[in-house]
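Tokens in:
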């Protein structure tokens, strides 16, 4: 989510359905999934086709998968039995016993207790609720009955492990949260116990009642509840709330006007929930609570016990950038990143005040920023600087004569910012044709949307050479392989190191182009100037998803496609001159980046390239060069065994002796 790029996408065949959430086996770095209730799939990140992944058909329906560190995945069957994944894989068709009878599993969780996995799940039958505790490695099962609550039914469960007992929290339909203590040790011969429920929290405040749908435990004194807040004579509104269970107070809430799915997840001090059609990620931090903080009377931020405080307003104006549409590849982007601060320090307060100085002269602003950037970094400084950049960008949009380029460059170059923290910056740089700022952003931002990457590429290819020669650009990525002074002079270059020689391969392509009528080859000199080359290199380094970039690339004009392909072909040949296929210089493109972009362009414009007469020679050269390299590497593969044998003989030979040997490779 930090990079806002899809790292992988796998799908089952048409007609198949994933029937429980996928988990990751942290021990083997594998994914484990179940589709159609009984078919188990296991695959790794590098696997592309899920249909070719490991498959095992089980003898019973699976309810849920759980993954625990240092224990491996656990499989909970609908019949209530639990197996570790390794035991199950040893005999996939083994008999699965029925632990429950005519009961439906409503919730399950897994914990580690004394280095042993424990699975706890709740079931329902005819309005009665039960709790099961299983230790699969000890083959023990304990069953408890939940104390019934009049005129109320459990809606959601969550649990945590503490002091060798599981604390189960129940969110009930009477707008209350109850606590149930579940012992992990029980005499097997003891009859079924009824576990009493104690009231933990009443979800009402000042006449308003929260109709909760899900809850998560944050720490021993705080829970988060997602639901709909209702009040007399007012429309219900969905919101996320944090409650202090120790003092029975509502700590903070966040309205969610676009609606949610009713599900809430919590992982590593971050909330995850769907808000409308986007995934929202909210950071939080809970510290030791005190009564003064709980009732809002805390005056001194240095008091030893302070409560959690979520700053909902940080970057609240950032627009959602990607919808969770029903498609095979989904790009999940954070709607907003809301940081937690207890009390703004002096550095943060000054930075926030800068964003309000709409009339501050540029030189004063630069000095102020330089002074503040030298101060010690605080946890929320990055997000605050993003707000400052956004404020400067908005001021520039409102005033066409105002453009603090030095300030913006200073902020981008000295801080690890991202596109999502200042989404208006690159749009402003495109509008002002600030090539240098765009180049730096492409080099440093890990989460640039494909639409913006394409806009930068189109700008870099369309801008005039005369304008570029007057533009300041970082040339570190090209200075080592493009001769700036002699670029326009004809330099004859013959590439033979990696298997390509023009004289040897004239017969490899059916397209014959007379030498005397041909212009200088694209492989002999760079088809673009060093400034444009450096900008294009920044695009090559930018992260992207092919699924989202291809539709934009199809809009690139044909002449710009040819120019970009000629430059990529030039880089490809330059890489092939080196044994390690690596270009010299800082942030130079890699052979994989070059090849990926060539394939992208040809996929987007292949028909146009075939029809255009001016692309004929370029496609011919590409075809000839690639075929020559394929043949060269094919020949290398043929002698691979002989080369390994030679390497083995070198190890056996006495290094102190001198000899001349002639080895014949047949």
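Residues out:
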């Amino acid at each position: 989510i930090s990079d806002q790029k899809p790292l992988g996408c796998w799908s089952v065949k048409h007609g198949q359905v994933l029937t429980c959430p996928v988990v990751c086996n942290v021990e083997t770095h594998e994914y484990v999934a179940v589709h159609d209730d009984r078919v188990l799939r296991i695959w790794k990140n590098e696997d592309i086709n899920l249909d070719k992944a490991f498959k095992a058909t089980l003898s019973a329906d699976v309810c849920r998968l759980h993954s625990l560190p240092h224990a491996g995945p656990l499989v909970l069957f609908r019949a209530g039995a639990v197996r570790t994944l390794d035991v199950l894989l040893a005999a996939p068709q083994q008999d699965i016993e029925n632990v429950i009878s005519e009961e439906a599993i409503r919730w399950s969780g897994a914990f580690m207790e004394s280095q042993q996995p424990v699975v706890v799940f709740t079931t329902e039958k005819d309005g009665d609720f039960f709790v099961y505790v299983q230790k699969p490695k000890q083959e023990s099962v304990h069953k408890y009955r939940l104390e019934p609550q009049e005129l109320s039914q459990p809606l959601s469960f969550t649990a945590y492990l503490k002091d060798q007992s599981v604390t189960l929290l129940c969110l009930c339909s009477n707008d209350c949260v109850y606590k149930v203590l579940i012992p992990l040790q029980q005499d097997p011969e003891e009859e079924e116990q009824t576990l009493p429920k104690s009231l933990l929290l009443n979800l009402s405040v000042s006449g308003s009642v929260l109709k909760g749908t899900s809850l998560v435990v944050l720490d021993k004194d705080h829970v988060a509840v997602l639901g709909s807040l209702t009040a007399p004579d007012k429309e219900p509104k969905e919101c996320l709330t944090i409650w202090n269970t120790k003092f029975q107070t509502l700590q903070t809430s966040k309205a969610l006007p676009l609606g949610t799915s009713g599900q809430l997840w919590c992982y590593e001090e971050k909330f995850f929930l769907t808000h409308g059609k986007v995934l929202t990620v909210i950071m939080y931090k809970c510290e030791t609570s005190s009564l003064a903080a709980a009732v809002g009377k805390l005056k001194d931020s240095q008091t030893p016990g302070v409560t959690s405080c979520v700053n909902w307003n940080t970057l609240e104006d950032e627009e959602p950038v990607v919808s969770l549409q029903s498609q095979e590849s989904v790009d999940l982007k954070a709607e907003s990143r809301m940081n937690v601060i207890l009390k703004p320090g002096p550095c943060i307060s000054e930075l926030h005040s800068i964003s309000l100085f709409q009339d501050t002269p540029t030189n004063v602003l630069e000095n102020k920023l330089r002074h503040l950037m030298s101060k010690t970094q605080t946890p929320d400084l990055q997000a605050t600087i993003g707000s400052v950049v956004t404020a400067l960008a908005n001021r520039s949009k409102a005033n066409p004569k105002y453009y603090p380029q030095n300030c913006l460059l200073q902020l981008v170059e000295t801080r690890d910012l991202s596109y999502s923290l200042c989404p208006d910056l690159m749009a402003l740089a495109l509008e002002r044709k600030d090539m240098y700022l765009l180049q730096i952003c492409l080099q440093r931002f890990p989460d640039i949307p494909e639409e913006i990457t394409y806009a930068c590429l189109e700008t870099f290819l369309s801008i005039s050479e005369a304008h570029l020669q007057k533009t300041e650009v970082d040339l570190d990525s090209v200075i080592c392989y493009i001769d700036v002074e002699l670029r326009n002079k004809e330099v004859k270059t013959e590439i033979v190191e990696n298997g390509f020689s023009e004289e040897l391969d004239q017969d490899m392509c059916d397209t014959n182009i007379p030498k005397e009528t041909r212009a200088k080859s694209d492989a002999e000199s760079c088809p673009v100037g060093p400034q444009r080359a450096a900008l294009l290199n920044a695009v090559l380094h930018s992260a992207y998803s092919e699924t989202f970039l291809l539709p934009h690339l199809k809009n690139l004009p044909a002449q710009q496609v040819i120019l970009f392909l000629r430059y990529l072909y030039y880089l490809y040949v330059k890489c092939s001159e080196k044994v390690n296929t690596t270009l010299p210089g800082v942030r130079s493109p890699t052979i994989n980046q070059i090849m990926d972009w060539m394939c992208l362009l040809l996929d987007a414009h292949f028909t146009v390239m075939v029809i255009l007469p001016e692309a004929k020679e370029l496609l011919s050269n590409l075809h000839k060069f690639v075929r020559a390299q394929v043949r060269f590497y094919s020949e290398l593969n043929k002698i691979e065994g002989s080369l390994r044998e030679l390497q083995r003989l070198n190890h056996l030979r006495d290094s102190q002796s001198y000899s001349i040997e002639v080895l014949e490779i047949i």
